[in-house]
Amino acid sequence: MERAQAVLFDLDGTLWNAVEEICYTWNEVVTKNPDSRETPISIEEMGECLGLPMTKIAEKLFPKASKERQLELLEECSSVENEYLRTHGAKLYPKLRETLLELKKDYKLFVVSNCQQGYIESFIEAHGLSDCFDDIECWGNNQLPKGENNKLIMKRNNVERAVYVGDTAGDEESARVAKIPFVFAEYGFGKAKAPDYVLKEFAQLPELMKTVSF
To answer: 145-178 burial, b if ≥16 CB within 10 A, otherwise e?
Structure first.
């Protein structure tokens, strides 16, 4: 039996909760673009979107706009959001940095998200976490789905044995695509179907990883 070499993380609902901050920035754009939608985006609406591919979020939040207009709004929202989060940050889950540094002693750590380019970087910069992660990848860089990016980042970093930690069924599916175990962060936003492991609090991850073997 061999131990894992790396941990791949989802971001929203796994490492931080930025739904209020994202909603605030997107509504700034909505206010400036009255053709985008008739009402402000609610926290609930935004929460349901987290984890979806960016184009799907645009379709969901701007349903009456043309595809071209959706992409224009998406680009503007993403830019405003990245800049705000880079400066203000969002709500990290308890003991995040300490836990990541503990994990870093034994594993390579990656972030793989369906987000736009620059979003993961804003998270890292705002909270001074550059020493915690070995590599990152996202939909915004290459338009690849999360499962393919899981495989890409593992290949790029010569990793064969890893787990994916996330909080949605989409995260679970991405782990299956990459043929790695899925750790369900049940404190997050979503649900899972049949996770391999369940994480009740982020700070418990180092102990949970001791039970993972290949």
So the answer is: ebbbbbbbbbeeeebebbbbbbbbbbbbbbbbbb
3-state secondary structure of 55: helix
Sequence-distant (6+) residues with CB within 8 A of 189 are 12, 13, 19, 47, 50, 51, 167, 168
Task: Say what the pLDDT of residue 53 is.
Answer: 84
**Which residue type sits at 145?**
P
Please state, in angstroms and rounded to a whole number, the distance separating the CA atoms of residues 189 and 88.
22
pLDDT tens per residue, range 4-50: 999 999 999 999 999 999 999 999 999 999 999 999 999 999 999 98
pTM for this entry:
0.95
State CA 56 to chain mean position distance: 15
- Helix H or strand E encompassing 99: helix 96-104
| Rounded Cα distance, 13 and 36, in Å | 27
Exposure on the CB side of residue 40, measured as CA atoms within 13 A:
11
Candidates 157, 122, 160, 111; CA nearest to 10 is 111
